[in-house]
Design a protein that fits this description.
Elements lengths: L6 H8 L4 H9 L5 H9 L3 H16 L2 E5 L1 E4 L28 H10 L7 E4 L9 H14 L4 E4 L2 H11 L3 H11 L3 E2 L9 H7 L6 H13 L3 E8 L5 H18 L2 E8 L15 H14 L5 E2 L3 H4 L1 H7 L6 E4 L22 H10 L3 E4 L31
Parallel strand pairs: 1-9, 1-10, 2-3, 3-4, 5-6, 6-7, 7-8
Helix pairs in contact: 3-11, 4-12, 5-6, 7-8, 12-14
Length: 394
């Protein structure tokens, strides 16, 4: 764990404009909506990151978590037509597909040599899929990988499953749990703003509907992850409102495990005219999330979207989780490379990424229990300390 500078030195880092927020952070007080807006508006990203790191190290020291995970996106056929999405099948884009259970088994077998502990499944909203398909999907993964944690189905998928089965949300979730579902991922709402919802993803759930699914999951003791998609048409105030709503929902349910800010990549979307994400945006959203979400244990930097170097810096801007090895992530495509879906870090590379950043790698399961294995790991060089830099992503 780092040794924090003196109060005087800290005040120099945060400056007079943020000193009142620093005092709240120092005392462990909850930040207000107006505080959050100021954290987005200030040019002093270093000061924001410094305060987020205080919270991060107060909670987790130098530990950085990662998981051995595999992604399966079982169909790219979708009837929601979100303007920010490059994943769903469309003219000039990726060809439509829906996986059979045999294909799902083959995907699992591709990585039989790796001790995967989590399978993460999300996909498009395909109206042709039957209720039993989703149950079979979970059962198939459990049979192919006994003991694996299945994290699957965003809230919008859960609603589709319930509708196709003509059952309540609660019953659909109960049936999925019986089939082997262990937790729900984030996603499905992108950002809790009625304006952005109407403009970008009006065919999907609105904010209150998304919260209803979350409450139903909490009643069934089903853990869930949270996300926020940023960098499109949302305002700073809408970002803060999203975080405050998540915080209030967590106060109510206590069932969220992690928050993952997700940067919007405009390539191959209807918003392709917008600029791509920058490291400044990524680091600020991670830092503000850490500062505003005082009742969330973990903040994740998703290296697939943020890049490895920015994720290394993010471990000093509030993030304590670097996600995982991530096999076959298909949601974000490189421009013009619809078939290039293999985005993987070996465990050795993951450990090196974390240790090079001056942090301590900790393998976890999906519920953040530490996993200890009998194998050597890469150690950080003695005395090395990573100095994060703010840079634009190329």
């Amino acid at each position: 764990m780092s040794t924090f500078p003196s109060q005087i030195a800290a005040e120099k880092i945060v400056g007079p404009d943020l000193i009142d927020i620093f005092r709240k952070v120092d005392q462990g007080e909850r930040l207000s909506f107006d505080d959050g807006v100021r954290l987005y508006d200030t040019p002093n990203l270093t000061g924001v990151g410094y305060m987020a790191n205080i919270v991060r190290e107060r909670m987790w020291g130098d530990a950085t978590y990662y998981v051995r995970n595999q992604h399966i996106n079982y169909t790219n056929i979708c009837n929601k037509f979100c303007k920010f999405c490059s994943f769903y099948a469309k003219k000039g884009g990726p060809a439509p597909y829906e996986m059979t259970m045999d294909e799902v088994r083959r995907r699992i077998d591709w990585h039989r040599d790796i001790d995967i502990t989590e399978v993460h499944m999300v996909a498009g909203i395909n109206p042709r899929l039957k209720y039993e398909y989703y149950m079979d999907l979970v059962r198939t993964v459990k049979e192919a990988r006994p003991g694996v944690h299945v994290k699957a189905f965003t809230a919008v998928e859960v609603v589709q499953i319930a509708q196709i089965g003509k059952v309540s949300i609660e019953q659909a979730l109960a049936d999925l749990i019986e089939a082997g579902l262990d937790s729900l991922p984030g996603g499905g709402i992108e950002i809790l703003s009625p304006r952005v919802h109407a403009e970008l993803f009006g065919k999907k759930l609105n904010g209150e509907e998304w919260k209803s699914v979350a409450r139903a999951a909490a009643k069934l003791n089903l853990k869930q992850y949270a996300t926020m998609l940023y960098g499109h048409i949302e305002t700073a105030a809408e970002r803060v409102d999203h975080l405050v709503q998540l915080r209030e929902l967590q106060d109510e349910t206590g069932h969220f495990l992690t928050m993952t800010p997700l940067s919007f990549h405009p390539e191959n979307t209807e918003l392709g005219h917008l600029p791509g994400p920058t490291a400044n945006d990524d680091l600020r959203n991670i830092a503000v999330s850490r500062l505003m979400l005082d009742n969330f244990d973990h903040i994740k930097s998703f290296w697939i979207m943020n890049t490895v170097p920015v994720t290394q810096a993010a471990l000093w801007y509030g993030a304590d989780d670097a996600d995982g090895l991530v096999h076959e992530y298909e949601i974000t495509y490189k421009e013009g490379e619809w078939g290039n879906k293999q985005q993987v870090l070996t465990e050795k590379a993951m450990i090196r990424m974390i240790t090079e950043a001056g942090r301590r790698p900790v393998e976890r399961d999906s519920l953040y229990n530490e996993i200890v294995r009998d194998q050597p790991t890469v150690e950080a060089a003695p005395g090395r300390r990573f100095i994060p830099l703010t840079m634009a992503k190329g």
